[in-house]
Amino acid sequence: MEAIYARQSVDKKDSISIESQIELCRNECTGEPKIYSDKGYSGKNTDRPAFQKMMQAVERGEIEKIIVYRLDRISRSITDFGRIWEILKAHNTEFISVNEKFDTSTPVGRAMVYIIMVFAQLERETIAERIKDNYYQRAKRGAFLGGPAPFGFKIQRTKIGGKAASMLVPDGNIEVVRQIFNKYAYAGMSLSKIAAWLTETGVSGIGRKTWDNVSISRILHNPAYVKADADVYYYYRGKGLILYNDIDEFTGEKGLWLWGKRDRSAAKYTDLHEQLLAIAAHDGVIDSQTFLACQKRLDENRQIKNTGSGKYTWLSGLVKCANCGYSLRVIHTGNYLYFNCSGKTNLHLCNVKHSERIEDVEAQAEEQIQAEIDRLSSVATPEPKADSHNAEKIEVAKIDEQISHLMDKLEEANEITMRYINARMVELDARRTELLNKINAAPEHKTIKLPNCRFRELDFDSKKEVAQLLVKRIDVSPESVKVIFK
Fold it and tell me: How far apart are the first and last CA of the chain?
């Protein structure tokens, strides 16, 4: 049996229809062929219903010859076609392309198949590379890269570098964004608490009525909001990103674009290795200190993982054996809950016998945490202003680069040039020290008053949140409970 295969991605004026393809292929048939056609399917892969049915018929030995109008109707991938061609050869199925004028029943026809497919693959990869390069050029200019605008922004058409482009401008929700960052950075609110607050206040703009941890986390991670300065530059460079802009362009005014190909199993903002970062055209709205305070807390949350997820006590993940330093785990016997040392039971490294009741340890910890809350509430806590030393930090970075360059030159220097290099390095180091002293000088602050609270009256989840925020660890021994604060 002979078969005709036709495919058309989309209807275009300059593309040949499926009906026309079939009519041209009929001229190569000796009898009435079986017709297989896929409309609206791309040739980038072989996931097409009619094509799959035809290949199943080939493997059953029902098809002796396949006729197509053009080779790329079968596939645009040399890898896919190579696999298809091996199946056709294994089942003695001939292949004819009307447009390219070749027949695989001849050696020349078989050679032509591979040559044409190589060029088809080259054309497809060239188009993809051109699209990617255009995308990267838009990012380098700071233009909006497409998709929905981040919460708190809207898209506005403009010109960047004399070319039409899109950029972000704040909308009515930008004040909500500022509150989200401030609550997470300074008020100690968790992602879930912020999400609940936004849902209760009826804030919309994310496509649904309710907020969740993921939607808050995406906002806090997104560098489009930050006023990118030297500190932000160093933060992202330390994450292994590719930065398109030099540090002197991080002036503390513009936001950032983060993009790049990544493993689909990796989160966009948590796995930043080899992602790309560029200065955006729009103004940032969150100062770098607040943004980086949020990033630090988010990073710590990832390191904690499941620590503190216990259901029996809000102390979970914090209580340690004062003797060996290993975690204390909860032993549940009927209505009796007590602690046991994992260093003793699991690793046999501890000789202290723990049997402290959970409620007793919680009571002593509550007293110490309340005392710390009272102390903090009576102290004016500094809230950082916008960084006033960004220019100095940029100059330090450039001096470091110059010193590194001069160090390389020392390997090739003679006695005379070495004298001048050393003198220049001394001069640069003196300037560097001067700048660092200025940067490290006590900054100006405005102060805020921390609200007081009665820790003992908080619910289970709130106690756990406050403890995770304030406490580094709690050392427990049969004689004492000592809370170590961050």
Answer: 79
Cα–Cα distance for residue pair 392/397, rounded to 1 Å: 9
Please, what's the b/e burial string for 126-138 (b: 16 or more CB within 10 A of its CB; e: otherwise)?
eeeeeeeeeebeb
Q: What is the pTM of this model?
A: 0.52
Sequence-distant (≥ 6) Cβ neighbours of residue 338 within 8 angstroms: 330, 331, 354, 355, 356, 357, 358
Q: CB neighbours of 305 closer than 8 A, spacing ≥ 6? A: none
Q: What is the DSSP track for 428-442? A: HHHHHHHHHHHHTSP
Residues 326, 328: Cα–Cα separation, whole Å: 7
Locate tokens 């200025």: which residue? 438
pLDDT < 70 regions, the chain:
11-14, 78-79, 116-117, 120, 124, 131-136, 138-140, 142, 161, 260-274, 301-311, 334, 346-347, 378-388, 442-453
Query: For 97, left (φ over 0), alpha (ψ -120 to 50), or beta?
Result: beta
Alpha helices (H) along 342-478: 342-345, 358-377, 390-410, 415-439, 460-470
Half-sphere exposure of 170 (CA within 13 A, CB side): 15
Work out the widest C-alpha separation in the chain, in whole angstroms.
Answer: 98
